[in-house]
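Tip: read the tokens left to right.
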């Protein structure tokens, strides 16, 4: 990603739907998936889709109705958001992030051991 893309939590829910299916969906199909967890108004879904289109995060294709696909992959988005989070809250220091996770008890000893194994295998 060349530029920082910021999406709201609601916009992210729409992106998650599109990433999960990995094929184009229309607004009604997106809404149907979203409605499995909570009630979404049609106008709300359309507004969020339009915002994502304006941001260049999704694209549309006209068939009998418009179908939408993401323009970025989920892993690319997560990577950029993670980088931004570390820069913003930890002054670009991954060791400060690790210390915060450990000091907040967010990680169990098993989690820490799993991370240790991951780093040993991948570094």
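Filled-in amino acids:
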């Amino acid at each position: 990603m060349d530029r920082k893309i910021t999406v709201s939590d609601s916009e992210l829910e729409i992106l998650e739907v599109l990433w999960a299916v990995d094929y184009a969906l229309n607004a009604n199909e997106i809404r149907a998936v979203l409605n499995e967890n909570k009630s979404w108004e049609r106008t709300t879904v359309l507004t969020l889709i339009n915002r994502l289109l304006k941001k260049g995060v999704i694209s549309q294709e006209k068939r009998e109705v418009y179908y939408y696909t993401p323009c970025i992959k989920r892993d690319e988005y997560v990577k950029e958001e993670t980088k931004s989070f570390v820069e913003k809250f930890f002054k670009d220091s991954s060791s400060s992030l690790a210390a915060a996770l450990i000091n907040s008890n967010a990680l169990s000893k098993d989690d820490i051991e799993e991370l240790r194994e991951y780093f040993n295998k991948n570094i």
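The chain has six helices and three strands. The chain has a mean pLDDT of 93.
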